[in-house]
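Our consortium's second objective concerns turning raw sequence data into structural hypotheses that experimental partners can test. To show how far this objective has progressed, the report includes one record in full. It was chosen at random from the queue rather than selected for favorable results. The single chain below, 291 residues long, was entered without modification.
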Amino acid sequence: MLPCVCWLQPILVLLSSVFWTRGENCPATCQCPDPHTVNCNGRGLTRLPEEIPLDVRRLLLADNWIPHIPSDFLVLYSDLVYLDLRNNSLSYIEPGTLSTTSRLVFLDLGSNNLTEIPTGTFGESRSLIKLRLGNNPYLSMVSEDAFLGLTSLRELELERNALSSLKVGALSQLPSLRVVRLEGNPWVCNCNFASLFEWLIKNIHKLPNGVEGMECSLPMDGRRVSLTQLTKDSFRECQATLTLTDLLIIIFSGISVSVVAIMTSFFLASTVHCFQRWSKGTKGDEEDSEE
């Protein structure tokens, strides 16, 4: 028995060292308080660290200068559930970059330099529960389908960005949404904002502070007013505003009516002309018979 144990000992040591290294292989500039957490907060990083353990679950990269995330970055980290990238220099996220992991639950992209959230940014990350996108001072556009497929998302933060408008579809496509933050944006009180205002009133229970602290500027003079001073009647004039579809219907209807009118006039004129010729022919025949 003893010779067998001695023979297996090197193999057991090798296997244990492999499994230990997989969890303990911490990047040189970071800290790893446990085998599944990598903490690189505030390390002055200008790019993603190398040699991140493949079994990492919590990756903390806040307060650095990281400008870009490779589109294939998350392919190998299938166990990642918590990713903190707040307060970096990210200006753009390639569509699909964040959809390669199926277990991501928490994602913080706040306090960056993002300018837009296009369709496909998050793919269909069905496990994502909390998404932070606040404090991006240049974020002025969120696609209507930006959050399509995030069926488990409960908390969405879009506060203190540069949003002047937001399509209601971007929010109504989130069936599990419980909390949304939209305060601190330069909203404009025009007809594009009317549908969002109606959604906010209907879902005011999802706003942590209601519409308190939310303002919008009047399109005429730029004066900012609190949303608490507005009602649905404030956008009454927008109900009479014609959409592009309405205009196309009106134009098509007008053309159709014109064509029908022309054809009717032509038919009537032809009928009258034929009747006149028939009348003249009948009168001529009567005169000939009398002679």
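The partners drew two points from this record. Confidence is low (pLDDT under 50) at residues 1-23. The helical segments are 2-24, 169-172, 191-202, 244-290. Both points have been shared with the crystallography group to help prioritize constructs.
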